[in-house]
């Protein structure tokens, strides 16, 4: 993890039409990762912008926490509920359905059993007894 705190060059006097501006930026982060699969190593470099001046160890923790949230919540919502396929765009529909999905995900997660979250959701749609158990927070 590399941290660049000297970012005064971002606020230079010359501006160009359509130029990206990052007000409130405290530091820039560069994270290099390596993944080994089937004997081959794949390397990636990711860049982050932070509004807080971080040390390298703090930045590494922040990046890991960000991806933990992404993997624990957003990925599950997309795989289980196909959230990225939703076409709700107008009014409050998108926010309302996101709330319903989060509520449903929490109920399905509370059912401690060997089935996957996706399977639990499907079984709840097929079996009203199982659905009642999930809604009453007493899954079988």
TrEMBL record:
Boundaries of each Transposase IS4-like domain copy?
A: 41-107
Q: Name one Pfam family in it.
A: DDE_Tnp_1
Q: Which domain of life is it from?
A: Bacteria
Q: What protein am I looking at?
A: Transposase IS4-like domain-containing protein
Q: Which organism is it from?
A: Pseudonocardia zijingensis
